[in-house]
Amino acid sequence: MSEAVAEPQGSAGVVHDWSRDKQVFGMPWGKAMMWFFLLSDTFIFSCFLVGYMKVRISTTDPWPNPSEVFGLTVFGQSVPLLLIAIMTFVLITSSGTMALAVNMGYRKDRKKTFWLMVATAALGATFVGMQAFEWTKLIMEGVRPWENPFGAAQFGASFFMITGFHGMHVSAGVIYLLVVAFRVRSGFYEKRGGKYEIVEIAGLYWHFVDLVWVFIFAFFYLW
Description:
This protein has about 220 residues and is mostly helical. It contains 7 helices and 4 strands.
């Protein structure tokens, strides 16, 4: 007569559950943990943006005009917020390619999933490159965390901290997407039972980064 296998207890039981990819709150562990991470990140970005609003409202010096600070000269003409508009378009487009990648992942179409994730990562890298150009332009014009020729000195500290923190998230996301994409192409997840939830989990992170940029865009460039 076969004997029932006893379930490990205590901390050993937790490790056993994780190794078997048991579900929590009706979803896989990995997806649940990503939601917890995004929730904590939401608190951090919220604190940054609320702090930014407080500084901007309380400062006695005039706040810089976004059209003047972030304008570009094209064919001898100043075009306000042109670079920022392109950056925003690039990042929103990357959300579309990421959504398609998740769809193809659940269809187990490795080739399309791979290329859509690579396209998403490429768009993310393009965004970071344009942000680096924006930073370089502002630094050359004299904007620093401690001073600002366009107006209130607090602008530089707020801008570099918040956009830099977001840019770090995008850069980490690009690396994350490429790792997952190459694992999809190699069949790594199919060898583990064909579980493509990791593509959706990566998508959750990427959509969060895109959503945060919408708020940064509104607070810094439109207000």
